[in-house]
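User: I've been trying to design a sequence by hand for this structure and keep getting stuck. Would you show me what you'd pick, starting by listing the structure so we're on the same page?

Assistant: Good idea, let's start from the same input. This is the structure you sent:
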């Protein structure tokens, strides 16, 4: 089976079905339709596999932070016991939104789903497990939910002072959204961008 991309052991992606069952279920299509990490990269979603047991001394993480200017770092634990207003927060995280800056999440324990839209506005579910780090580009519509294990501890990185403001869809007028469409959705082979307000 060729050489497996080590990232695929901690980050997997697939197209989602249209079911409105529990958001924490995998929501695979039938038959299952997996999405490569290269295809995610075409959408601007970057990914790494890192040593989550050694994040304090991980040279690769240090290098990524230096190269990308991630000066801010903190941790967020999402589970019913640790997150105040858990039910409300989970609902908010799952509301489709964008940010005007990158969203960087490094899973150091547990797992969760980051859903992103493809060129045709279809949902791709990105399952990030311990050791997986992803960067969602500014302007991409996305949402987050836990999986059925109900736990993730994620390192949050940011350039400068963190701004976590979500802009719920539609917010196509924002410069970050326009730049995202220009840089990723209108590229060769990318098809036409979808107008969310339509």
């Amino acid at each position: 089976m060729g050489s497996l991309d080590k990232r695929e052991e901690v980050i997997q992606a697939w197209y989602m079905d249209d079911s409105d069952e529990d958001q924490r279920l995998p929501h695979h299509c039938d038959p299952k339709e997996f999405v490569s990490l290269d295809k995610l990269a075409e959408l601007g979603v970057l990914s790494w596999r890192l040593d989550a047991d050694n994040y304090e001394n991980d040279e690769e993480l240090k290098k990524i932070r230096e190269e990308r200017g991630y000066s801010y770092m903190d941790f967020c634990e999402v589970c019913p016991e640790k997150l105040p207003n858990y039910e409300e927060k989970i609902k908010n995280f799952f509301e489709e939104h964008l940010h005007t800056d990158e969203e960087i999440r490094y899973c150091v324990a547990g797992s969760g789903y980051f859903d992103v839209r493809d060129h045709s506005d279809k949902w791709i579910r990105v399952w990030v497990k311990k050791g997986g780090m992803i960067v969602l580009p500014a302007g991409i519509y996305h949402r987050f939910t836990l999986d059925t294990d109900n736990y993730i501890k994620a390192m949050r990185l940011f350039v400068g002072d963190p701004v976590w403001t979500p802009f719920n869809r539609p917010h196509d007028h924002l410069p970050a959204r326009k730049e995202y469409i220009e840089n990723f959705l209108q590229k060769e082979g990318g098809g036409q961008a979808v107008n969310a307000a339509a």
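That's my pick for every position. To get oriented when you compare it with your attempt: The longest strand covers residues 103-117. Confidence is low (pLDDT under 50) at residues 189-198.
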